[in-house]
Amino acid sequence: MPARAHSNHERNGPAWLALLFLIFLTLSQVSLGLKLDLDDPDSIKAAAGQAAYDMIKYYDGNQTGRIPGNLPDPYYWWECGAMFGSLLDYFYYTGDDQYNELVTEGLLFQVGPSNDYMTPNQTKTTGNDDQGFWGMAVMSAAEQKFPDPPANKPQWLALAQAVFNTQALRWDTQFCGGGLRWQVFTFNTGYDYKNTISNGVFFNLAARLAKYTGNQTYADWAEKAWDWTADVGLMSPEYHFFDGAHTTLNCNDTNRQQWTYNAGVYMLGAANMYNFTKGSDKWRSRLDNIFNATAMFYSPTAANVMVEVACEPYGTCNTDNFSFKAYLARWMAATTKMAPYTSEMIMQKIRASAAAAALQCSGGASGTLCGIKWSDGAKYDGTTGVGQQMSALEIIQSLLVSRVSAPVTQDTGGTSKGDPSAGSGGTFDPTIPQDTIHQRDRVGAGLLTALVLVSGFGSAWWMIS
User: Fold this and answer.
1) Are the C-beta atoms of residues 428 and 168 closer than 8 Å to each other?
2) b or e along 332-354 (b: 16 or more beta carbons within 10 Å of the residue's beta carbon)?
3) In this predicted model, what pLDDT tens digit does every residue of 238-278 receive, in sequence order?
């Protein structure tokens, strides 16, 4: 689908329109959708609890004979990691621990033989973005002080570091001057594509590891990933993030589709870099520009209500796309903790979108299943699924962000144990200056990188997965 141009001023709307829309939504919720009082924590927790309950009904990994950490068809493996991220947030915001055992079981079951979320049964679909969503989930577990696994199991921080390390080794300078490919393995369609979300996840994880550990080398990787995204043209001078480009054309064929989660993943990464650099003007400017550019993702008729503009207005969203607003909501809320000055402008968006999402959760026999067209209010759009529930859950529970403590670091109460060389077979530690690494380690890392860089020439038009 060709990219559509949206001007920011068309998507902002006047303040009075936002106020009227909020009043309308609040009055309408007497009989339709989830009951939600935007200023009552108990009401917010109840609405989030219903959305979480309706989401988890799609999960069968905790049933006899099923695989923990997997969703049934038509969902890809990555979305289960993303769903666990929402349930981690649910515990963080509400204190309701009823899903904690399920989340821990799934996160640990899928770590793979090297404890890096490279699971052999997912090789046909494993992208750097897929692996990265699991990495970001365990990063959140460390930051939010989610209960640590037993001592004989992989730990949250070490798992996040393992994902980062495996991806740092895949940084590909042979084509497009750097960046990560979409797919990990040469035999998968999409190996010849460098997509923004894979590189955004890597940037996000590097920035958060820098903040959590205090190690400058992670921050250096974050700077490198940011610079490459801008230099290769996946981010415009106006801070719009495009979908990706092909290595076969040296990334000169940018797909200009724009998705909410691409903006969100860079927003939270930039917020962590702003915090890590103690409020540097450079990262504040970048963060502000990302936020301002997200104006295109809000309805022109329902002020401050989030819309997946690439597909939602046309009824063309696929299973994956239905979940993308969840991640923008998640990362916007988290941004307010890393850059508190953003709170007022972000919460204006979250409040309007949460009120609209609660109204849209009016489907099914229960009258609580969530659609995706929040801007339609109580006119249920007829769609159901994990993505729709996750999106509603994240935007609603984000209303509680001001009531929870900031993410911890290893110096401010974090308890998760790390391993800087995790996931690399001991051959790569990004926190050690490269001139101190032994030659045999360089060879081991080089061999792994060379294997990943073998180019597959059978290309096909791809669909986001």
Assistant:
1) yes
2) bbbbbbbbeebbeebbebbbbbb
3) 999 999 999 999 999 999 999 999 999 999 999 999 999 99
Token pair listed for 380: 């249920």
DSSP per-residue letters across 83-135: HHHHHHHHHHHH---TTHHHHHHHHHHTSTTTTSS--GGGTTT-BHHHHHHHH
Please report the sign of the dihedral spanned by the C-alpha atoms of residue 184, residue 189, residue 195, residue 198.
negative
Which residue type is seen at 209? L
Judge residue 433's burial from the number of C-beta atoms within 10 Å of its C-beta, 0-12 exposed, 13-18 middle, 19 or more buried: exposed
CA 297 – CA 95 distance, rounded (Å):
31
Q: How many helices (H) and strands (E) does the chain have?
A: 15, 2
Please say whether the dihedral angle defined by the alpha carbons of residues 137, 143, 147 and 151, taken in this order, is positive or negative: positive
- Name the pTM for this structure: 0.86
Q: What share of the chain is helix, strand, coil (3-state, %, to 5)?
A: 55, 5, 45
Cβ(277)–Cβ(214) below 8 Å: no
Residue 343 token pair = 């709170």
Report the distance separating Cα 104 and Cα 214, nearest Å: 26
Q: Tokens for 91?
A: 């515990």
Sign of CA dihedral 50, 52, 58, 59: negative
The mean-pLDDT minimum among 70-79, 164-173, 442-451 falls in 442-451
- Nearest Cα to Cα of residue 324 among 80, 125, 82: 82
Alpha helices in 169-215 (DSSP H): 196-213
- Tokens 């709307």 correspond to what residue? 13
Closest Cα partner for 154 from 443, 416, 460, 409? Answer: 416
Cβ atoms 200, 262 nearer than 8 A: yes
The DSSP string of 149-173 is PPTTS--HHHHHHHHHHHHHTT---
Q: Are 71 and 83 in contact (CB under 8 A)?
A: yes
Residue with the two structure tokens 């409040």: 351
Q: Which residues contact 396 (CB under 8 A, 6 or more apart)?
A: 34, 36, 44, 47, 48, 51, 354, 357, 358
Angle at 118 between CA 410 and CA 157, to 5 degrees: 5
Least confidently predicted of 127-131, 166-170, 446-450: 446-450
The token duo for 133 is 């969503």
Residue 390 in contact with residue 82, Cβ under 8 Å?
yes
Q: Nearest 5°: phi and psi at 55?
A: -75, -45
Residue 209 near residue 215, CB atoms below 8 Å: yes
User: In degrees rounded to 5, what are phi and psi of residue 255?
Assistant: -80, 115
